[in-house]
Amino acid sequence: MENQDETRGGRGRGRRGAVPPMANVNTAYVRMRNPFAPQQAFSADQVAAMHDGALRVLEELGIKVLLDEARDLFRKAGALVDEDSQMVRIGREIVTAALTTAPRSIRLRAANPAREQVYELGSMLFMAGAGCPNAFDNERGRRPGDLTGYLETLRLQQSFDVIHMHGPSVEPQDVPIHLRHYAMMKGQLENCDKPLFVYARGRQQVEESFEMIRLARGLDDAGFRDGVWATTVINSNSPRQLDLPMSRGIIDFARAGQMTIITPFCLAGAMAPITISGALMLQHAEALAGITLAQITQAGAPVSYGGFLSNVDMKSGSPAFGTPEHIRACIGSGQLARHIGLPWRSATGAASNVADSQAASETIMALWGAVLGGATVTVHSAGWLEGGLTLGYEKFILDIENLQTIAELATPAPADAAALGFDAIADVQPGGHFFSTAHTMERYQTAFYRPLVADLSNHGSWVEAGSLTAAQRATAIWKQKLADFVAPETCAGVADRLDAFVQQASESGGAKPED
Amino acid sequence: MENQDETRGGRGRGRRGAVPPMANVNTAYVRMRNPFAPQQAFSADQVAAMHDGALRVLEELGIKVLLDEARDLFRKAGALVDEDSQMVRIGREIVTAALTTAPRSIRLRAANPAREQVYELGSMLFMAGAGCPNAFDNERGRRPGDLTGYLETLRLQQSFDVIHMHGPSVEPQDVPIHLRHYAMMKGQLENCDKPLFVYARGRQQVEESFEMIRLARGLDDAGFRDGVWATTVINSNSPRQLDLPMSRGIIDFARAGQMTIITPFCLAGAMAPITISGALMLQHAEALAGITLAQITQAGAPVSYGGFLSNVDMKSGSPAFGTPEHIRACIGSGQLARHIGLPWRSATGAASNVADSQAASETIMALWGAVLGGATVTVHSAGWLEGGLTLGYEKFILDIENLQTIAELATPAPADAAALGFDAIADVQPGGHFFSTAHTMERYQTAFYRPLVADLSNHGSWVEAGSLTAAQRATAIWKQKLADFVAPETCAGVADRLDAFVQQASESGGAKPED
Fold first, then answer.
1. Cβ contacts of B311 on chain A, cutoff 8 Å
2. How far is A458 from chain B (nearest CA, A)?
3. Nearest to B36 among A39, A132, A320 (CB)
4. Which residues of B touch A327 (CB under 8 A)?
5. Is A56's CB within 8 Å of B422's CB?
């Protein structure tokens, strides 16, 4: 339709090597701010109605809390507790008070001070896909998650600056469950220098994980409480239920001054109302209940609002990602988070079974939903396949490209007189080109984002090179990153500082996860 | 990382058939409004500086205009013309006057009145990938574009409501160039009922194309001028040049009251400054020159601002799509269009050679750039591969899914008391599910967007079904659409009304494209 320039892919096409190869651009995407204005999926009145409806749900219907200790805390705070049904009805004045003590801005500590983050509205952080029971890559195929996969994916997280917080991408199922937390903490502490993740799988595991952080980082109790060294995600059991490990995790992390991300996992049409607005109202009620438990445990405890709301696929019953409903839910969750003034967590992901076009669409559409919803952190933003059942190594690399594309936009582009380049335009005659102008030569090395895996060569060159898809090219990239991996300097000596503790704890029976 | 619900893909996963199959959702995406607030890549001052700099470019440096008739029109309008160099320097008062006569809202006519569109800021229209010299599908492979491919892709455009304006996706290279416009117009007029596209490839071709529209639609001259029946895209030859067919097209369409979309194709670092701000300033100058030519030809002529600005890939010299620079350029172009108050055209696309994850990333990232830039129409939004060298049938289907995802968001979701569903939440006990609630049963058939090609089945079912990628599944979809295709009722009798004209015009030698 266009003239020959556009339809032929531009005169530039084929000018291979017309410009000197570009050097690496700086990709230290630290403490990024979201460059986009938050969007609105619902009116201010509708958001207020969702918030009020959520308060009604907690006040009139209540939430089932399985942990005795948590119900005691709610009772002491003035909630109405029915021990037979374990139902807790929380008056809105209790919730409102909790929202006044929840911090608006949280310092996330890291072994490397340069990796510290400020967790608040306006920040833009990314976490890799996490919690996957399986792993997949083009060379080894699909397999149950093991310690090798857990460590490899941690090192991939560490290898890309655009991943800001660590998480367990692959579950090391070959490590016995009563010893697994030792291996998982050792893996993070010996290989990573970004903010850490600790599973809330029981009191003893949590306390031992905290102790390993103190040992590895050389912290006394005051140092450990100075900012947040450990973060966990708490999922309520929608609808309206807080189970034992989740309730206990909120309490244990609050007492230790560490961060919980309260994330109801509401599937519209399954565990939540089929309408996005109704599912958001339920999500909001459950998140407020968890935030309240944290604050009545310890006023000022670092806590994050969380939303992971999508629709169920009516055909397969699976959770859908990147659908219009998912995007709308992300934007609506952001409106609710801003309504209560708290930082919040969103998520992307993919239901696809393979790192194909569908997987890219699902992940990128949901990523934009999270970014346009002003999410403080977007979880599962690299590598998720099968709705989280599998962590794909190639998918991880492909997603990093998308995250880096968004991250580049966090830095404004120059538009001063020098950048506008009136003189350069004057120098180039009509129909000429800018390749050799001083304006170009001064800037070409850092002017553009340099693709990680995208291949823009023409069809002939692409065929000559083997007609590889992006997912096929990604294999060489993760292999190279793992081959080149060197643990950060700040991890030196960590193994020695941990071994005695881990050996003794293991010999004394370890710590089983609690239900 | 999450609890078992989330990491296992949700309890919903595996509930195959727990909910009755969903009926088709209405997908008549007509006269959509953009639901997103336009974003800003540059400050208001910077946008004003780009606009002022563009006026300086036209006033002090000028633009080379190859067509004598166009230079005459500029001279009569008061521009300074140097016949030796063919350079035209346009005073800002001439440009400013043109911007006052350019219409803000344009009625796009269609054979089917329900397909009419209002072309203005705030509207959100999509056009398929266009102008491709080659075609590709999984069954026939990559091949030079021919009439069969041209007609098949027109029928695919007609088959999806989310494509709002027609364009020549595939160039019918097997039709002699002096007869090609007859075949292309017949194809549109006999198979399509949406707003039409006419190539500006010379005066006689344009006039004959307009005549075929009048004959097919039974329009007299007044009826043809009542709104816009034909649209074309004008690409300036960056930097600072308007060639013969482009200049002539602007004049011919303006005189006939038909719409030109003035679209400089500026590749930052190649035919434009390497900075996005500088490339935008050049784009703006060239677009203003074309808009001015249209208005001095015929005040009030329907004309659209256009931007197709991305960066050149420094490694291959190819145009890049969906890069941070491309997204920034889309948003910046929207700011410039709103600065002058005119509707505008953006574009997406892909450089990838195959419908893989890269192709999806490139197209979706650029699509969001266009949507967040408030583009009135986004061109090349389905099917483009190889930077426009090839139209991919499977890529077309995969992109339709993305366009429908965006289109669904143009309709607000219900959030009244009934939608919030407090009573439904009250009916479902903690830990229960909403599958069988009245609230769900009343809504499940139309609650969610129904995927076109996405497959959310679990890994086992997916393997049983042949482990097909989305691109492989897309083949069956376009084949079915073509098999089911029936020309719209409004096209009945069109062939009879055109044949005599086409036969006579062909016998009298047809009409060669003009340079």
1. 447-448
2. 7
3. A39
4. 405, 409
5. yes
Residues of chain B positioned with their CB less than 8 A from the CB of A263 = 2, 6
- Residues of B in Cβ contact (< 8 Å) with A339: none
Q: How confident is residue A4, by pLDDT bands cut at 50, 70 and 90?
A: very low
Q: How far apart are CA A243 and CA A166, in angstroms?
A: 25
Among B352, B409, B454, whose Cβ lies nearest the Cβ of A324? B409
pLDDT digits (tens, 9 = 90+) for A13-53: 333 333 333 333 446 898 999 999 999 999 999 999 999 99
Q: Kindly list the residues from chain A whose CB atom is less than 8 angstroms away from the CB atom of residue B5.
A: 235, 237-238, 265, 271
Closest CA relative to residue B376, chosen from B340, B408, B347: B347
Cβ contact B291:B262 at 8 Å: yes
Mutation target vs A (from B61, B398, B434; most A CBs, 10 A cutoff)? B434
Q: How far is B145 from chain A (nearest CA, A)?
A: 13
- Position B429 scores a pLDDT of 96
Helix segments in B257-275, DSSP class H: none
Under 8 Å CB-to-CB from A113, ≥6 apart: which residues?
A: none
Q: In this complex, do A273 and B471 lie within 8 Å of one another by their Cβ atoms?
A: no
| Cβ pair B133:A433 closer than 8 A | no
The reported pTM is: 0.95
Cβ neighbours for B52, distance < 8 A, ≥ 6 positions apart: none
Chain B residue with minimal CA distance to A437? B273
Query: Does A398 sit within 8 Å of B361, measured CB to CB?
Result: yes
Q: Look at B419 and A278 and tell me if their CB atoms are within 8 Å.
A: yes
Whether residue A459 and residue B431 make contact (CB cut-off 8 A), yes or no, is no
In whole angstroms, what is the distance from residue A263 CA to residue A321 CA?
A: 16
Are β-strands B344-347 and B377-379 bridged in parallel, bridged antiparallel, or unpaired? parallel
SS3 B111: coil
φ/ψ of B78, rounded to 5, equals: 105, 5
Contact assessment for residue A322 and residue A364, using Cβ atoms and an 8 Å cutoff: yes
What gap in Å lies between CA A381 and CA A124, rounded to an integer? 12
State the average pLDDT for chain A: 94
Mean pLDDT (chain B) is: 94
- Residues of chain B in contact with residue A273, where contact means CB-CB under 8 angstroms, are 420-421, 424-425, 434, 437, 439-440
* Fold topology of A1-20+32-409+434-515: TIM Barrel (3.20.20)
What would the pLDDT profile of B254-298 be if each residue is shown by its tens digit?
999 999 999 998 899 999 999 999 999 999 999 999 999 999 999
SS3 B489: helix
Does ipTM surpass 0.90 in this model?
A: yes
* Set of chain A residues whose Cβ sits within 8 Å of the Cβ of B14: 317-318
Tell me the domain boundaries of chain B: 1-20+32-409+434-515
> Which tokens hold the place of B18?
């727990």
- DSSP secondary structure letter of residue A123: B
- Nearest one of A277, A216, A292, A256 to A499, comparing CA atoms: A216
| Interchain pair A318, B401: CB under 8 A | no
8 Å CB contact between B88 and B71: yes
How far, in Å, CA of A348 to CA of A362, rounded?
8
Ramachandran area for residue A159 (φ above 0: left; ψ -120 to 50: alpha; else beta):
alpha
| Residue B202 contacts residue B248 (beta carbons within 8 Å) | yes
B140: helix, strand or coil: coil
Tokens of B52: 């002022």
What does the DSSP assignment read for A494-513? HHHHHHHHHHHHHHTT--PP
Is A136 in contact with A393 (CB distance < 8 Å)?
Answer: yes
Q: Where are the alpha helices (DSSP H) in A57-124?
A: 68-76, 92-101
3-class secondary structure, B52: helix
User: Do strands A259-262 and A230-234 pair parallel, antiparallel, or not at all (unpaired)?
Assistant: parallel
